[in-house]
Structures are given as structure tokens and as C-alpha cells.
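Dear colleague,

Thank you for sharing your sequence with our group. We've completed the structure prediction you requested, and as agreed, I am returning the results in plain text so they can be pasted directly into your records. Please verify that the sequence below matches your submission; if there's any discrepancy, let me know and we will rerun it promptly.
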Amino acid sequence: MRRAVIALMVGGAFTVLTACGTANGASPGSNQAAPGATALPSGLAETKQSCEALGQAYTNNVGPFAEALSKMVAGPTKDTQAAAQSKLGSLATAVRAATATSTDAQIKSDGKSTADSLTAKSKDAKFFAGIKTTEDVNKVLGPSLKEWLSPVTHHCS
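Please find the predicted C-alpha cells below.
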């Protein structure tokens, strides 16, 4: 189960990072274009920067969230559930921070909406109480997380 979670996290982080407007051959985090390529127009550069920040938020927060969910399923207690809820809240905070300074009004709006939705989900004790098996964890980390993040990640594909 742990291998599946790790593979899912690495695959998801890779997908987000490779979709961050790097079509000109620049690697994520690099501001240099490939030889012979022209610089990105300011709007695309801003989108790329926002997508890289979102990728970093994902990378830094989904692993701890996945680990907390796994611990919650392995030994369900109020503490393990609270930890999982807190980690999802941390992801929400990171998404909000990654998009709050964007000059693109739509990314900023979608980031706020996504963060608000993640925050609400992180406070939903009934939702977390329903996560009882590794299959439930995989669903949360796969299709559910993808759906929750879709308002912002569609800017990066």
C-alpha cells in the first residue's frame, strides 16, 4: 500500500511540474529559455511562475497528507484524523499562498476558490471518518484530489 501511495504522489507531482508551461524547454524553476527560443510573453511567464508555485505547494504538502491518511487508516483515532485534517488544511494554505500574488485575476480567483474548498473539506470530520481502507485513501489521493485541485491545475496544462 505504501508503495502505491508513494508512486501516486511522485506521479502526481511530476504531472503538475511537467505541465507548468515548460514547452520552450526550460526546466521547472528555471527562468532561462532553451537555446534559440524566445522569452515567454509576460502573461505566459506569470502563468508559468504560478504553476511552479502550485507544483511546489503540491510537492511539499501532498506527501505529508498521504502519510497522515495512511496512519489514520492503520490506527484510527481522533489524533490521527485530526492530523490528516490538518495536513489537508496545510495544502489549502499553500495553494492560497501560491496563487494569491498572481497578476492573472483568473488564477488568483481559482486559487482562492480551490483553497476555500480544500479548507472546507479539511474541516469535514464526517468525510474523514468515512476513510477506512487503503482503497479509500487511494481514492482521496487520486480522483478526489485531482478534482479538488482542478480549478487551478487546468491553468497549468
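Summary note from our side: The chain has a mean pLDDT of 81.

Kind regards,
the structure core
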